[in-house]
Design a protein that fits this description.
three-stranded antiparallel β-sheet; single chain; five-stranded mixed beta barrel; mainly beta
Length: 166
Amino acid sequence: MLSLNMGSAPGLAPLADGLSAAYWDAARDGTLLIQRCARCGRHQFYPRAHCAACFAPDPAWVPASGRGRLHTYTVIYRTPNAEFAADCPYVLAIVELDEGPRLTARILGEAGDLPDGLACDARVRVVFTPRTDDKTASDNTATDNTATDNTATDAACVLPNFVLEA
């Protein structure tokens, strides 16, 4: 079976700005946020200062269910980016949340293996993976957002990834 190196969340640290700071703060607490327009009710992701559907200003951050389907994916075996080279191979995917928005994320397997049953339209759920600057970290734990002991809250940066639902 193909093994995926996921010792800690990969690559570059995200850059939080005025639009995305609430998103990253919530991820650190184990909650996936998306924006919802007060005028038309549409959900959206990535963060914007206006609704992408009706252009109303200031969409509100709301918790997402954290569940969705695998829209498409690829297994990355080689990358020209040095920041991600040690993580190869890994699964990069577009996940369509049950609320509608699509986002780019990694799909994680058990104990670093390629997920069994990886296929378009497979059901997925979010997990939160602490990112460390120490690329030699041996912690392979992805924190489920439904867990009561959320170790991800202690991390400086936590990235939302997804796993296949059983």
